[in-house]
Amino acid sequence: MVEVSTSILSVKKGEESETFFELEAAKTDYFHIDVMDGKFVQKNTYSKMLEYASYIRRISSTPIDVHLMVEDVKSAVDDFASVEPNIITFHYEACKNKQEVLDNINYIKENHCRVGISVKPETNIEEIYEFLPYVHVCLIMTVEPGKGGQILINDTLKKIKKLSKYVKENNLELDIEADGGINLNTAPEVKKAGCNILVAGTAILMAKDFKVIIDELKS
To answer: pTM to 2 decimals?
Structure first.
């Protein structure tokens, strides 16, 4: 079963309420919260995403999927734990060493959230194999993190295939999430590679009918 996590990065000010209600009615499986600090990536969405996530939690029971593109993971976990997310994902590349990766995993679990670990396109997937038994989700960036509306990098499909094969061979219980350039044209290949959670923002929010495109992405 493929799930859809809708990125709300490009939701316009003044249209939040209507958009969030429509996405919930369209049965998005998650609201995807792209948290950027202006350091780990150039763009800064921190305050906007905290505001949006807090609003979503007040009006919706749809699970929240927080993607931290930040240097200071623990401080961000402290801030976003208040919106009771289902998943908090941090970047492997934000950590200085193996111990910091494990500390972040444990810290997120202590805040009663499922844990995700994410890798950028240039990071070899083998680098995070040792951490996979301790997390619930592996998020593969299929574009460079930091902005929406990019084109999917085809080489990242090989990474998803390799990860999917490793997960099956080692009997791991792990969701594989892909983020970046996901639309009706690219989704079939991403799903075929082994991904079971699709993050899509622009493709959904630009559609006339959210439910139609979300249903097509899932099918």
So the answer is: 0.96
